[in-house]
Design brief:
Protein name: DUF2231 domain-containing protein
Strand content: under 5%
Number of domains: 1
Keywords: Membrane, Transmembrane, Transmembrane helix
InterPro entries: DUF2231_TM
CATH class: Mainly Alpha
Distance between the termini: 41 Å
Largest sheet: 2 strands, antiparallel
Number of strands: 2
Order of helices and strands: EEHHHHH
Length: 163
């Protein structure tokens, strides 16, 4: 996929990742620490993790298409390199979701799970979740820098005047 209604597909698809990955990460962390949330949200976390995993290579492929059509720069190269790491974060979220599903099913079948298993799932979920959120931030920041440069827009008021 290259364009959607004249816009590069990457700039549309990237919003799926920007929303889904942090949302999945936060829900996975919550589910790993709060059993009531796990009982209600575990399947949602699993679906979101899989959707994020599916959308990641589609988005990066669209980004590689776009990269060939924009001016080459160090910022674009950095964004491309960081963007390629998103697949690892998406895989980590799927692993965390699978661990949560395993824990959930174990708790339902055996009326509980060992504390060590709960702690292990929590560690995996927290590490994968935080890494994914940081990764999305770094990738997005590098994409914004590649697109708009290092300009500081925070000093411009709503009317366009310095503020």
């Amino acid at each position: 996929m290259s364009t959607v209604d004249g816009l590069p597909a990457h700039i549309l698809l990237v919003h799926f990742i920007v929303v889904l990955a942090p949302l999945t990460a936060i829900l996975a962390i919550v589910c790993s620490l709060w059993p009531a949330a796990r009982r209600r949200l575990v399947w949602l976390v699993a679906v979101l993790a899989v959707v994020t995993l599916v959308m990641t290579p589609i988005t990066t492929d669209a980004g590689e298409w776009l990269e060939k059509r924009v001016e080459r720069s160090a910022a674009v190269h950095k964004h491309t390199e960081l963007g390629d790491t998103m697949l690892y974060y998406s895989i980590a979220l799927v692993v965390a979701a699978a661990a949560l599903v395993f824990l959930h099913l174990r708790e339902r079948r055996q009326a509980g799970a060992p504390t060590l298993l709960k702690a292990g799932v929590a560690v995996v979920s927290i590490v994968a979740g935080i890494a994914s959120i940081v990764g999305v931030y770094l990738i997005g920041d590098s994409g914004a820098t590649a697109t708009w440069g290092d300009q500081d827009y925070s000093v411009v008021g709503p009317s366009g005047e310095d503020g």
